[in-house]
Amino acid sequence: MYMKKVIYLFVIGVIMSSCSSKPHYTVKGKIEGSDSITFYLQKRDAGKTVSIDSAVSRKGTFTMKGGVVGYPQLIQLVAGNTRKRTSFYLENSEITIQGSLDSLFKADITGSKTQDEYKAFINSNKPLSDKYSRLVVKYQAASQSRDVANVAILERQLDSIEVEMISLQKNFVKSNPRSYVSPSILVGISIEMEADEIESLVNGLDTSIAALPQIKNLKDRVIAMKAVAVGQKAPDFTLNDVNGNPVALSSKIGSKLLLIDFWAAWCNPCRQENPNVVKVYNEYHKKGFDVFGVSLDQKKEAWVKAIADDKLTWTHVSDLLYWNNAAAKLYAVNSIPANFLLDETGKIIGRNLRGEALYNKVTEVLGAKK
Question: Residues with Cβ < 8 Å from 35, sequence gap 6 or more?
Answer without folding.
Answer: 57, 58, 59, 60
